[in-house]
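Continuing from the previous page...

OK, I double-checked the sequence for DUF4920 domain-containing protein against my notes and this is the correct one:
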Amino acid sequence: MKRMLLPLLLSLMLLSTPAFAKTYGKGVHVDKATPVSAILDTPDNYLGKTVKIEGLIVEVCSKRGCWIYVAGDRPEEKIQVKVTDGEIVFPMSATGRVGVIEGIVDEVVMSKEEMIKYQEHLAQEKGKPFDPSSISDGARFIRLIGLGAEINE
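Thanks. Re-ran it with the corrected sequence; updated structure tokens here:
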């Protein structure tokens, strides 16, 4: 019985130890996290404000590590975090890890033509086909301009 108790206690201690997080950029200083759904549901309430979000990193820019997508608190929901090229470089290994990100809520408004160019660029990056006729209108994107992040290793 004693031999079974020691491994169990060690396992519980390891589970309660916080994961090591690597800091990117200026780190994270905002105390309270804002749900991604709140930002996406009422973006005008957050535009220009610095917020902290937490979530699973579901995608990383494969070219320069200059953006990540963080899963929201609802299924199929995500938000882009864009950083200045070279100032912060997110590693591809961040995909599938939990991140805490601080940034300024921003909007990008694109015409139909700009949307086509943007979607074509994304398709090329991913090596996937793109059909320009699939874009019927422009779009408004809400994203964060990333200032800092902590990503669990």
